[in-house]
Design goal:
The complex is a heterodimer of chains A (186) and B (205).
Chain A: H1 11-19, H2 23-45, H3 48-64, H4 75-96, H5 118-133, H6 136-146, H7 152-159, H8 163-185
Chain B: H1 5-11, H2 22-41, H3 50-58, H4 86-90, E1 93-99, E2 116-123, E3 130-134, E4 143-144, E5 153-160, E6 163-171, E7 175-177, E8 184-187, E9 193-199
Antiparallel strand pairs in B: 1-2, 2-5, 3-4, 3-6, 6-7, 6-9, 8-9
Helix pairs in contact in B: 1-2
Classes of the chains: A mainly alpha (186), B alpha+beta (205).
Chain lengths: 186, 205
């Protein structure tokens, strides 16, 4: 007798089960989307510990308001949008607290390959610092486009922003990065 | 510094490298290298332990049933104050709550002992249709409000379980609006706010 493969449940099914009180179902949703949300949050906040807090707050908020998810089959986009707003709220709070971007540590040796040359490590640190200096909207669009590989149509659905506006944000982010990285080269 | 629009188009995936003039190709290739580094430095995913931390944060909670502390006083059993009709004339919405407890015989009987009729009223003089959606109907616009006398004030009555409910009105099938006269509001995670209604049964339960 063969071993039955566990049936893959759709996002919509998991949402439905979670709404009935199934914590394992919500836990599976967390497992599916925590990497995407964490990756984005770490790049948006620039700090691993802040990213963890933002992602945790995102899922707690999502759990609380799961009934307001109007398209359970696209719960990933809904979660990302909550996470995106959580990142922006966090960054506003940081701004109010007057934390200088210079205090944001360079990201992060822990992600580097041990075989990387010192020069490559230095360059990655400069890229991270430059990314942190972009406006939050530009950084968000740039990361979705170039790290997550999303199309502009997908980004528009996730963020609720028009395709032309998102293109403009990405284009400006590239131009700004070009300036910032040249400044670091000096 | 403005980038050449053709390089931007290449990075957007709209044209191929060989469609660029030779003097721009090295710039485009430099960008490819840079973007490769950006992807390389991105964390692979969430750190170990985050999943458990998240679940610990929600343990024991049921979606949409946990009550914000600032609302707890609203759900203490007592008669609900009814907003006067004049409020609708002022701007938007009037809630009239009519309670009639009855026995609950559904599968989920549990501790639910009664429902409360809630009348939703919204002033929408230009609307062709008005619907109500909320956590009580899975946010589907299944409750149609009516305006029989054509005065622009739409109303409908719904039986709700006692507790805290979130809702919105949908104008002409697509325009979701928040009840501006709601007693309180809840961020919906999309930058908008749901209206929040606390329903209390009149039999003290």
């Amino acid at each position: 007798m063969g071993t039955a493969e566990p049936r893959h449940r759709s996002d919509g099914e998991l949402v439905s089960e979670a709404l009935k009180g199934s914590q394992p179902a919500f836990g599976e949703l967390v497992r599916r989307y925590q990497d995407l949300l964490y990756r984005h949050a770490e790049r948006m906040t620039g700090r691993a510990d802040d990213a963890e807090d933002v992602v945790q707050a995102t899922f707690i908020k999502a759990h609380r308001s799961l009934r307001t998810c109007r398209n359970p089959d696209r719960v990933g986009a809904w979660l990302f949008r909550i996470g995106s707003n959580a990142c922006k709220d966090f960054l506003k709070g940081r701004k109010r607290a007057s934390i200088s971007l210079d205090e944001v540590p360079e990201l992060p040796a822990e992600h580097g390959n041990p075989d990387d040359s010192l020069e490559r490590t230095r360059m990655r640190g400069e890229i991270d610092r430059a990314l942190q200096r972009l406006a939050a909207d530009q950084r968000e669009a740039f990361l979705l486009k170039h790290v997550e590989g999303s199309s502009y149509d997908e980004m528009s659905q996730i963020l609720g922003v028009s395709v032309p506006a998102l293109k403009m944000r990405v284009h400006r982010a590239r131009e700004e990065l070009q300036v910032l990285l040249r400044a670091y080269e000096r | 510094m403005t980038m050449d629009s053709r390089v931007q188009a290449y990075l957007d995936g709209e044209i191929q490298l060989d469609e660029l003039p030779p003097e721009l190709r090295s710039q485009a290739e430099a960008w490819d290298d840079l973007l490769g580094e950006v992807r390389q430095t991105a964390p692979a995913g969430a750190p170990l332990g985050l999943h458990s931390r998240i679940l610990a944060g929600i343990e024991g909670r049921t979606p949409a049933r946990n009550l914000p502390a600032w609302l707890e006083w609203l759900v203490r059993p007592r008669p609900i104050t009814v907003s006067p009709l004049a409020a609708a004339a002022a701007a938007a919405v009037l809630l009239l709550v009519i309670a009639r407890p009855w026995s609950w015989s559904g599968d989920d009987a549990g501790e639910v002992v009664g429902e409360v009729y809630v009348q939703f009223v919204v002033d929408a003089p230009t609307a062709e249709t008005v619907h109500l959606a909320g956590d009580f109907n899975d946010w589907l616009p299944t409750v149609a409000l009516n305006d029989p006398d054509g005065d622009g004030v739409w109303s409908g009555r719904v039986a709700l379980e006692p507790g805290v409910h979130e809702y919105m009105f949908i104008i002409d099938g697509s325009d979701w609006i928040t009840d501006p006269n709601a007693a309180s509001f809840q961020d919906d995670g999309f930058g908008r706010r749901n209206a929040v209604l606390a329903v209390t049964s009149l039999n003290g339960t």
